[in-house]
Design goal:
By secondary structure, this protein is mainly alpha-helical. The protein is built from 18 helices and six strands. The chain folds into three domains: about 100 residues, Fumarase/aspartase (N-terminal domain) (Fumarase C, Chain B, domain 1, Orthogonal Bundle); about 230 residues, Fumarase/aspartase (Central domain) (Fumarase C, Chain A, domain 2), CATH 1.20.200.10; about 100 residues, Ribonucleotide Reductase Protein R1, domain 1. The chain starts with 15 loop residues before the first helix and ends with a helix. The model has no long low-confidence stretch (mean pLDDT about 95). The structure holds arginine. The site of arginine has 10 residues, from helix 6. The site of arginine (ARG) has 10 residues, from helix 6. Pfam families: ASL_C2 (PF14698), Lyase_1 (PF00206).
Length: about 450
């Protein structure tokens, strides 16, 4: 059949539905640049191995440049026979330079080609995603510094637990995201392994210099086993897991802010730029940006699961199932790019309502501090915990706030209480107790920012 690269042994036609079903060009055309880069490197290795002449190499190289320009100017005209990006580019090259184009694929297979293209493509995208991640951590640090004076309730089980600094809450996400950047760097090392020269599965019979290919394409390592090199998609799965994990962190962050932005909490006010209204209820201002960040984490997790399912149970080396690796990778890249940009925008434009955060604090959240008061008087913690609990019960009985109990009330619970117990009812003092590394005191939060800033300066 005309135009097909593998048609030689076929006499029958492909069913048109099958042709459509088999084709990946509608989405893998995004790999056009990587595909051309890979081919330009490969033709150099072919020249060095004596399989193409210097003139043929130049003709192929320049022909590929022309194909690249067509793509970049959106002038590349797809033909019905273009099954995927590899066949499309080679078909066009042949039209432009003639029969020399037929030498380009010597010893190469679409199996090592597509694996190479995907690594080249993903590598570039990972750099972009990485820089958004670093930017997000930077914005978090800036806000944490700016809002360090703001106190708010810290929650466990979504129940008010202990007073903390707003910045302490915010910075917890900087550390999650920092680990995500570290994970990204680690997976990058595994993306950065070159499969080109692995052929269809058995390797390259023309002694092409794979180290030369690696230098040309700027890969620090080559795949050392051709069976593995052509069919390893761990790197895609790892990327999808990375995005899932990162988006789970961002989903948690978004969920916190969605709660904090309700009228009931009013801790934060989302900028108009990241909110939407209701077509029915005129008063509504909805946190759609945050809801979508939360929602898209499900989508990315789904893509990860989906690839794992595809890989599970495959026999050795290339199987067409592997063509299913691409849409998820592209989609997750695009989705993550949007998520990170919106997260950066939301956090840099968010207004924090200091008064509402403070007003949400209540003396019962200092019951732990009341126990610590007794600990400082020499009472063992277990006993102090129980005595403080008795004070809470007494306040409940008297239907007053814990801080409204009289000194005499406290003394009735334990002789270790005295008039200085009133000093406990100070939220600022409360957070300032947590001076050990990692705590919520000003100094400790400042230290967190400083450590992150050192790291950021190295990025
Ligand atoms: N479009 C194919 C893919 O994405 C390219 C590799 C085809 N290889 C093959 N042996 N049919 O996986």
């Amino acid at each position: 059949e005309a135009g097909r690269l593998w048609g030689g042994r076929f006499t029958g036609k492909t069913d048109p539905v099958m042709e459509q079903f088999n084709a990946s060009i509608s989405y893998d055309k995004r790999l056009w640049k990587a595909d051309i880069q890979g081919s330009q490197a490969y033709v150099k290795a072919l020249e060095q191995a004596g399989l193409v002449s210097p003139e043929e190499r130049l003709a192929i190289h320049h022909g590929l440049e022309k194909v690249a320009i067509e793509w970049s100017e959106d002038r590349f005209v797809l033909q019905p026979s273009d099954e995927d990006i590899h066949t499309a580019n080679e078909r066009r090259l042949k039209e432009l330079i003639g029969s020399a184009a037929g030498k380009l694929h010597t010893g190469r297979s679409r199996n090592d080609q597509v694996a190479t293209d995907m690594r080249l493509w993903l590598r570039e995208q990972l750099q972009i995603l990485r820089s958004f991640m670093v930017q997000l951590i930077q914005v978090i640090c800036t806000r944490a510094q700016q809002d360090i004076h703001i106190l708010m309730p810290g929650y466990t089980h979504l129940q008010r637990a202990q007073p903390i600094r707003w910045s302490h809450w915010l910075l917890s996400y900087a550390f999650m995201l920092q680990r995500d950047v570290q994970r990204l760097d680690q997976l990058m090392d595994r993306v950065n392994v070159l499969p080109l020269g692995c052929g269809a599965l058995a390797g390259n019979p023309f002694n092409v210099d794979r180290q030369l290919l690696a230098r040309e394409l700027n890969f620090p390592a080559v795949a050392l086993n051709s069976l593995d090199g052509t069919s390893d998609r761990d790197f895609v799965a790892e990327f999808l897991f990375w995005a899932s994990m990162t988006s789970v962190h961002l989903s948690k962050w978004a969920e916190d802010l969605i709660i904090y932005s309700t009228k009931e909490f009013s801790f934060v006010l989302l900028a108009d730029a990241y909110s939407t209204g209701s077509s029915l209820m005129p008063q509504k201002k909805n946190p759609d940006s945050l809801e979508l960040i939360r929602g898209k984490s499900g989508r990315m997790y789904g893509r990860c699961t989906s690839l794992m399912m595809t890989l599970k149970g495959l026999p050795s080396t290339y199987n067409k199932d592997l063509q299913e690796d691409k849409e998820g990778m592209f989609d997750v890249c695009d989705t993550m790019t949007g998520v990170l940009q919106v997260a950066i925008g939301v956090i840099s434009t968010l207004k924090v309502n200091q008064e509402a955060c403070l007003a949400a604090l209540s003396p019962d959240m200092l019951a732990t501090d009341l126990a610590y008061f007794l600990v400082n008087k020499g009472v063992p913690f277990r006993e102090a915990h129980s005595l403080s609990g008795e004070c809470v019960a007494l306040a409940e009985k008297k239907q007053c706030k814990l801080s409204e109990l009289s000194v005499r009330d406290f003394e009735s619970v334990s002789a270790s209480f005295d008039a200085s117990v009133t000093k406990v009812w100070d939220y600022e003092n409360s957070v300032e107790q947590y001076r050990s590394i990692g705590g919520t005191s000003r100094a400790s939060v400042q230290q967190q920012i400083a450590r992150l800033q050192v790291w950021l300066a190295e990025q």
